[in-house]
Amino acid sequence: EKVTALKNINLDIFAGEICCIFGPSGSGKSTLLNQLAGLEKPTRGGVKICGQIISRMNENELAAFRQHHSGFIFQSYNLLNHLNALENVALPLEFAGIEKTEREKAARHMLGEVGLAGRMKHYPNQMSGGQQQRVGIARAFINRPQVIFADEPTGNLDSKSTKEVMEMMTRFVREYRQTLILVTHDQEMAAYADRIITLKDGEIVRQEWKEKEKEYENE
Question: Does the reported pTM lie above 0.85?
Answer without folding.
Answer: yes
